[in-house]
Amino acid sequence: MLMQPQPETEEEQVLAANLAFYEALRSLDIARMEAVWLQEDWVRCLHPGWELLLGWEEVQRRWAAIFHSTRQILISISRPVVQIVGDTAWVSCLEDVTTAQEDGISAAVIEATNIFVRHRGKWLMVHRHTTPLPGKTSSPQHRILQ
Amino acid sequence: MLMQPQPETEEEQVLAANLAFYEALRSLDIARMEAVWLQEDWVRCLHPGWELLLGWEEVQRRWAAIFHSTRQILISISRPVVQIVGDTAWVSCLEDVTTAQEDGISAAVIEATNIFVRHRGKWLMVHRHTTPLPGKTSSPQHRILQ
Question: Is B87 helix (H, G, I), strand (E, B) or coil?
Fold first, then answer.
């Protein structure tokens, strides 16, 4: 049995936490999404096209609603850039997202800032800010690769 | 002579740093903008409608270009929310912005995440992410109040 290599540097740990978030998003499994967030009343999330959500209760409820109304999310990320200061880290990355919802399919390229804090040795998401980039949509070729 | 009260709590210090950024923006004075940023190659800035800028050199150059082409910026902020973890802090706030540029006037409501780090005792901006909120523009009444 092949063992997954353990992330070693702090930067690798943060990138792994960032990846775990996107895997939770792809899975549409609310339990997986809950596992990657710090569940505090001060966490925040700005979904594309929405207003800022304040606190884990609002953030969790919206993820549950999104997962409920979404049949499939195809998402790939590129250009991840990490900065770590103490127990806080933030990642900038580009998301290439195609979403199949009850009312149709949408595609977008999104610039994201994801902030993590190290809590009991584990990096957890505490803030997410997304911006759809105007005039950019994922290419059909890219979507096929997903 | 009236003395300005010194910010006391960490949260007040961060809010003062956030305010200093907006005062620099209003002033259109590049020296003031330079004074509120940490000038490192890992700072980042996402202006509305642009791609992410990486590193102080790019960030500074774009601010200089924006200030050069802008006659006036009217900006007020609301709903600032602060979180501090060690020497890192991030502020979410809504910006109500009216910009007079060479080619006309534009108005927008923008959701911002501003990240600061404490460097030699001073909170400096290291990351800025902005998202224009769709369907929201500043009201004429609001603009008059600026």
Answer: coil
Tell whether A39 lies on the interface with B, counting CB pairs under 8 A: no
State whether residue A83 sits within 8 Å of chain B by CB. Answer: yes
Contact B113, B91 (CB under 8 A): yes
Give the ranges where A45-86 is alpha helix by DSSP (H). 56-69
Query: Is A127 touching B (CB cutoff 8 A)?
Result: yes
**How far, in Å, CA of B32 to CA of B46, rounded?**
19
DSSP, res A89: E
- Mean pLDDT (chain A) is 91
Q: Which two tokens stand for residue B11?
A: 């949260």
Q: Which pLDDT score, from 0 to 100, does residue B139 have?
A: 47
Of B54, B88, B130, the CB nearest to A86: B88
Question: C-alpha angle with apex A74: A107 to A58, nearest 5 degrees?
Answer: 85
d(Cα B58, Cα B45) in Å, to the nearest integer?
Answer: 9
Q: Do B129 and A111 touch (CB under 8 A)?
A: yes
CA distance A20 to A94: 16
**Cβ contact B101:B71 at 8 Å:** yes
Whether the complex's predicted ipTM surpasses the cut of 0.85? yes
CA distance A45 to chain B (A): 10
Average pLDDT over residues A14-29: 98
Residue A137 CA, chain-centre distance (Å), reads 18
Structure tokens at A118: 């190290």
**Contacts A110 to B, Cβ<8 Å:** none
- Give yes or no for a contact between A86 and A79, defined as CB atoms under 8 angstroms apart: no
Residue type, A106: S
